[in-house]
Amino acid sequence: MALADKVLQFIKEHSLISGQETIIVAVSGGPDSVCLLHLLTTVREKLGIELHAAYLNHMLRGAEAEAEAAYVREFVHALDTPSTIEAFDVASYSREHHLSLEEAAREVRYRFFSQVAKSWGAKRAAVGHTAADQVETILLHLIRGAGTRGLSGMRPQALYKYRQGELIVIRPLLCLSREETEAYCQEHNLTPQRDSSNLSLSYLRNRVRHELLPLLRDYNPNIDHALLRTAAIASDEAAFFEQQVAEVWSKVGQEGNGGIALDKREFFTLHPALKRYLSREVLQVLLGDMKDIEAKHIEAMKEALSWEAGKKLSLPQGLTLTTEYDRCLISRGNSLCPFPALWDDEYPLNIPGETVIVGWRVISEIMPRQAAEIAADGFDAWVDFEAVGENLVLRTRRRGDRFQPYGMNRAKKLQDFMVDAKIPQFWRDSIPLMCSSEEIYWVVGWRISEKAKVEEKTEQVLHLKAIPPCL
């Protein structure tokens, strides 16, 4: 089978291109990317697509990179393909963001592709990864402890999320060996550039390529095929588990305010393997990029879901898992917490009117008993205006506070009420309390006091609506 037909079959099999669209083609100047762009230009009419080449000089190799950029410019011009060729100081970016050069280069590169795609109205970017890159990636994942999902290696297409949007990355050459792309270049009289940094053993991927793989081939001459076969099996199994995750997601997970809440009880009913895939999906949704995630993080998440309320687990890229009584929250900071604001003072409540404090808004109005629509507590409260009076303040809890919850015949420690109500420990200090100088009449979000309840003899009702900072 001709190489072009082989790639076309792979594109069709994995639905990499839908036709009638612009594809951004990442060109580095090396054999694989040169083969990719040249091959796609020969089949673009058949696929019904437009191509736009993208090259980024990482400014790490001086004159060599300048010559490479000049080669790419001439190469794409000869193919009558529009291009975007730019440079970016990856070393400075690496220092600024405390990343390795490899990580920084990858991050900058994909951000560049995303920006080019956005400029040209494209949704997909094609990169020149081959089966050889796949083998190296599988080994890298194993070395870093990525778990069974890492055995799948790179997918033919993957969705990358950025602040500016999303980019679908496709890999049409995963079906080819590095030898095949080299042979293609020779057959078509192409003269790709050679990146000297690919020989440097300071990069982990290069050590895998030049040291580890040759050693493994001494043990098993067919190790490449064995790893690719393993990756194919692992990919099929991953697809199955991801389908299972999609089916249980609505029962277990809830997204909101930049984080995800997991229902502990539903989570514990899942098979251990499904727990891992669901945990991974949570991180995928929140991060978009799993480059820092290892198997140990997934296992830690699984274990943390059995912890008692109030415990926290730090995860990569600033994520925190916080346990509650019936669920756990995974977010940056406490973004799922409806009570993130703290204050030390007390604030008079405007009655009637609106009170704004540290992000909170409390709206109050007085109405006749007959006009009031008494409802359950929460962020709305209906209280007896004569019983509570008009000299009310908002404050947070203090040592020794006591509270008589609605429906109870005696007061109890506010701390005990919060424990019984299963209020997460890290919320308790920031929950507003509506009080007089002597009594707590409303624990906002939970319960009014028995002493503030509306009765048949009540003539005027004070209606309060609290709007937390996150809403």
List keywords for this structure.
about 475 residues, about 40% helix, Rossmann fold, Uridine Diphospho-n-acetylenolpyruvylglucosamine Reductase, domain 3, 6-stranded mixed beta sheet, Phenylalanyl-tRNA Synthetase, Chain B, domain 3, 3 domains, 5-stranded antiparallel beta sheet, alpha+beta
The helix fraction, in percent, is 25-40%
The best one-word shape is: elongated
Count of alpha and pi helical runs: 14
Q: CATH homologous superfamily of the largest domain?
A: HUPs
Oligomer: single chain
Low-pLDDT segments:
none
CATH class of the largest domain: Alpha Beta
Give the overall average pLDDT: 88
Q: Strands across the major sheet, in which order? A: 3-2-1-4-6-5
Classify the secondary structure makeup into a structural class: alpha+beta
Count the beta strands. Answer: 22
Q: How many domains make up the coordinates?
A: 3
Over all CA atoms, what is the radius of gyration?
30 Å
Question: What is the annotated CATH architecture of the largest domain?
Answer: 3-Layer(aba) Sandwich
Percent strand equals 15-25%
Stated plainly, the CATH topology of the largest domain is called Rossmann fold
Instruction: Tell me the distance between the termini.
Output: 60 Å
Task: Characterise the protein shown here.
The structure is a single chain. The chain has 471 residues and is an alpha+beta fold. The chain folds into three domains: 3-129 and 171-219, Rossmann fold; 243-332, Uridine Diphospho-n-acetylenolpyruvylglucosamine Reductase, domain 3 (2-Layer Sandwich); 347-467, Phenylalanyl-tRNA Synthetase, Chain B, domain 3 (3-Layer(bba) Sandwich), CATH 3.50.40.10. The chain has 14 helices and 22 strands. The strands form five sheets. The chain has a six-stranded mixed β-sheet, with helices on both faces. A five-stranded antiparallel β-sheet has the order 7-8-11-10-9. The chain has a five-stranded antiparallel β-sheet with strand order 12-16-19-20-21, with no helix packed on it. A hairpin with an 8-residue loop joins strand 17 (402-403) and strand 18 (412-413). The two termini are 60 Å apart. The mean pLDDT is 88.
